[in-house]
Amino acid sequence: MLRFSTWKSIAIVAMTLAAILVVAPSMLSPAHYEQLKARLPAWLTPPTIVLGLDLQGGSHVMLEVDQADLLNTQIRNLRDDVRRILREEKVAITGGIGTIPRGVQVRVADPADREKILPKLRQLRNSFSANLMGGPSPLDVEASPEGVIRITVTDLGLTDKSRRAVEQSIEVIRRRVDALGTREPSIQRQGDDRVLVQVPGLQDPEQLKTILGQTAKLEFRLVADPGQNPGETEELEQTDQEGKILIEKQVMVQGEDLTDAQPGFDQQRSGEPVVNFRFNIRGAQKFGDVTSKNVGRLFAIVLDNKVISAPRILTPITGGSGQISGHFTVEQANNLAILLRAGALPAKLNIVEERTVGPGLGQDSIDAGKRAAYVGAALVVVYMLITYGVFGVFANLALFVHIAFIFAGLALLGATLTLPGIAGIVLTIGMAVDSNVLIYERIREENHAGRSILASLDAGFNRAFATIVDSNVTMFVAAAILYFLGSGPVRGFAVSLALGILTTIVTAVTMTRMMIAVWYHYARPTKLPI
């Protein structure tokens, strides 16, 4: 039991030194950390412990799906689908495709044509919603004797679209926030139509609002020619110059076909900031076809229903890449590239609540957590020294290594340390010492029963080990449940608790046993000091 191989001792010492090295960068000031980072190669960036919103401050934003904008988007999609069906079936209509408050309508005078397209229009229900099978319809399709066909969005269909928009928005928001260079944002769904975004360490809420406030819906449309059907065109505002411009409603290429977007500078003309983009195969084919068939026409680049620029197509663009210019600043070009890379939000999100947590409040929490940890650790250290003497020294040394292992694990995992996480660490301090108490009390009982020193030590570790494992496994299961079922700070508590449980097995059992083995080898006691 007290025979430790050399490689085991070296492994334990190496793990301890490695944990200290991993934790050390987190103890540095931001300025010193940046100096250390600059001296090391890029692939050897030292990890640090990420502090949560309650510890370092940051931005808190509540977003809500704009129901009116979502409904307008669905009406536009319905109009495009109806136009496609009419073209496929070669059905003539009177007066174009009109819009009504919650849908679209068309007038088909020929009864035979109406009977031909009604089944196709009713099939739009299946593509409109994916999870209303067998339930109430998300779309109402009605035909009047006069030949007017109305397709309207029901309340159930709008609610379902809102819920799905939130689900899709969460991942888009995460990609956008990560591109800002921040770490560990908390993005959670709130009800059917809201998203909560918390970004620790970001003290500039305006930058976050700029990134989150745009849907980044990019479209490429042709500028309308004079005399085109008014029902097929619309006027949109321009961002690069005053006034509005008339463009076609039909979207030729959508931004969802983009594979990359990067800020850059126009090398051929003024050197102003631009955004260079690249399409996937499908987008490149569409873009090439449109530019080949419309040489000489103006091609509008539309972002969130505003025309960024409308350059003239001079030659076919078949390479699958292009450039967006619009008198941008460097920051605007960078933000636009982030938005396009992350993808478009499925609906407009309005900011309904905004809070900035200052670093002062976070510092108060850190100070309170430190005091609790210091007082708790000090009381444990004193108790172990008074109760178990030299064995208490071994337990205290193992306790400090235990804490280092926890912080090293947090840094390597990139987990966020919150105030509840600090509470979890304080809890694991008591749990780690409790394991040593079980071992020492068992050793004391065996020694009082008349066993030799070696036999008492061996029995203490072997017989207490099963109890330690059982209790820690139970706590680990509880931590896992908290992690998978909880969110936010509850997860932070679960992570620190789980790490503390895992390191307890190493420090309270293996490391303590190694130190006792070394002590016994050199001290050769005739009586246990316990």
UniProtKB/TrEMBL annotation:
Sequence similarity: Belongs to the SecD/SecF family. SecD subfamily.
Protein name: Protein translocase subunit SecD
SecDF P1 head subdomain domain span: 236-347
Domain Protein translocase subunit SecDF P1: 166-224
Lineage per the UniProt record: Bacteria, Pseudomonadati, Pseudomonadota, Alphaproteobacteria, Hyphomicrobiales
Subcellular location field: Cell membrane
Chain's role: Part of the Sec protein translocase complex. Interacts with the SecYEG preprotein conducting channel. SecDF uses the proton motive force (PMF) to complete protein translocation after the ATP-dependent function of SecA.
Pfam families xref list: SecD_1st (PF21760), SecD_SecF_C (PF02355), SecDF_P1_head (PF22599)
Keyword Transmembrane helix annotated: yes
Membrane topology: Multi-pass membrane protein
Keywords from the UniProt entry: Cell membrane, Membrane, Protein transport, Translocation, Transmembrane, Transmembrane helix, Transport
NCBIfam families, sorted: 2A0604s01 (TIGR00916), secD (TIGR01129)
Cross-referenced HAMAP family: SecD_B
Transmembrane portions of the chain: 372-390, 461-485, 497-520
Subunit structure: Forms a complex with SecF. Part of the essential Sec protein translocation apparatus which comprises SecA, SecYEG and auxiliary proteins SecDF-YajC and YidC.
Domain Protein export membrane protein SecD/SecF C-terminal: 348-519
